[in-house]
Amino acid sequence: MAIIVSEYDGDVQLDGYNMYSMLKAQSKGLHFVTMLMKGNHNYFNRNIEKNDSWMSRHKNVEDQLTREQQESFLSNYAAGFFNSVLLGNQNGFIHANSPQPNKMYGFDVITMYRTDKSIELADVTTTDDFQAENVEMEATIDSWFFKLDKVLIDTVTSGIEPFNTRPLINVKWTNRNSRIVLSPKEKDFKRYEALTLNIVIDSADELNKKDVSQQFSVELKDTNGNICRVVLPENLNALSYTPGEMDYTPLEDMVLSFWSTTSPISCINLPLGEFKNLDLEHIESISLIFDKTDSGSIFIDSITLQ
Hints:
- The chain has 2 domains: 113 residues, no CATH class; 187 residues, Jelly Rolls (Sandwich).
- The radius of gyration is 19 Å and the shape is globular.
- The chain contains 2 helices and 17 strands.
- Strand 3 and strand 4 form a beta hairpin.
- The strands form 4 sheets. Strands 5, 7, 8, 10, 15 and 17 form a 6-stranded antiparallel beta sheet that branches. The protein has a 5-stranded antiparallel beta sheet with strand order 6-9-16-11-12, with no helix packed on it.
């Protein structure tokens, strides 16, 4: 199953992400969700002439894609999906043995995917699985329901339980080479193809520079002490700043504060073949090393093998 979501969606407000969460929880197999950046909901349907982008949470949509561009993307995406899942031709589509795409068919995207082999390496309802070195770290919750919500950004949650809450680990750093270290629940990585980080930066936090993507390194260490570090590329859409501003709304006897635009989770996919000279059957730790920027704040949704 593959779902396309549009960044400037003014119609169903990125609800495809909730569909993805429900599919992931209730069925096995290949699941994909891709956000077409600068696209809107209605331009995928010739029966709907109305441009819904003005109803989205984005103030400036002057750079939105044309209907013809979105139809081109949809045609290529559908062909790529069927070639991948039915014919085994994965070139050009999302798969475990390739880093997540920044662009697909010439257009900017963010993506998430899950295979039937996917397992989670950490419990994100608590920080117990992590060690912090010069970072602030806490377990928190994003929720559709304001009384449960503890974060300023909206990562897209549902009004349907249990999808109305999303546990997250928030990590903040103010010094280079700060890090978090995870002792993974599964030590044998050899049976898998990729390490996948599902994360989003906290655009509401001033530790992240406006309109600048984050960047850091990922390090694996085996039980023999061998270490391999992979530096994430610059300007990843998956680590990009979500344009917006702080907004406020009165409710009952309080004022709710929130980031004005939605910030969906996206994946950073690291094929395990990129980690050289390691005993992948005996991995001791995974480290996220914040060595490329002076400060930042991210939310971790999950860390998985697939």
